[in-house]
Amino acid sequence: MKITILGCGGSFGSPLAWNRHGNIDLNNKRNFRTRSSVLIEDNNNNILIDTSPDLRQQLYNIQCTNIDAVLYTHEHSDHTSGLPDMRAMSLINQKIIPAFMPKEMKSKMEIFYKYIFKGEKDYLPFMKIENLENNFSINGTNIETFKHNHGSIDVQTYKFGKFAYSTDLKKFYNEDIDKLKNLDLWIVGLLREDPHPAHAGFEQVMEFINYIKPKKTVFTHMTALLDEKKLKDKCPPNVVPGYDGMTINI
């Protein structure tokens, strides 16, 4: 399995325009972050998690012209608004692309993107919403999913064997965190160092890591308040900030 971090920035990206670059070193290319999405290549499948506003350029950068399925974590626009860029993937490969999403998203996505899922006037639909089950399979790739808290809404964690992806994380429900034990890789959201009403801060995320004990942890969904080198220096060797274009094989 090959995992590529297409983007690892928060909703604003990093840095902001107009000299708003927070705490980052602009000489470090890894501090330049597009909005968060990730590509999983497994069993000849290209599975995309979230369609960020920067999706077209992200897929262009890695020379990807085929997506077999899209998994959505939640409805926020920094995770969904690149959806129209999937039209090119559909046309190139002459197929309807399945989109798996929590039921809370379905009605809004069908309203906002009617032409994509239902067709409208001269537009034929090029994606289809599929029901999201707790355990499902895409062409031989087995996936487990469960909800975690993101302030006023919930977000899906996705688990592919010994790899899991948990963006926009505030806390876990019940004993769901135990489902993440024995991971080879956990990609987890870290918005900023101090806690946010909808995001865990550095200390809380490190508590999760110390409990789960994945072999490797990579941070994503980072604002310009987090400098790549300074954050890396604070962490043990097996915990690192991600960067756009980062690839991990497990």
Describe this entry's structure for a reader.
The protein is α/β, with parallel strands linked by helices. The protein has a single domain (2-249), classed as Metallo-beta-lactamase, Chain A (4-Layer Sandwich). Helix content is 20%, strand content 30%. Strands 7, 8, 9, 10, 11, 12, 13 and 14 form an 8-stranded mixed sheet that branches. Strands 6-5-4-3-2-1-15 form a 7-stranded mixed sheet. The N and C termini lie close together (5 Å).
Structural class: alpha/beta
**Low-confidence runs (pLDDT<50, min 5 residues)?**
none
CATH class: Alpha Beta
% residues in beta strands = 25-35%
Largest sheet: 8 strands, mixed
Distance from N terminus to C terminus (CA atoms, Å) equals 5 Å
DSSP helix fraction? 10-25%
Assembly type: single chain
The number of helical elements comes to 7
CATH homologous superfamily identity: Ribonuclease Z/Hydroxyacylglutathione hydrolase-like
- The H-and-E topology, N to C, reads as EEEHEHHEHHEEEEEEEHEHEE
Morphology: globular
| DSSP summary, beta strand count | 15
Looking at the structure, the CATH topology is Metallo-beta-lactamase, Chain A
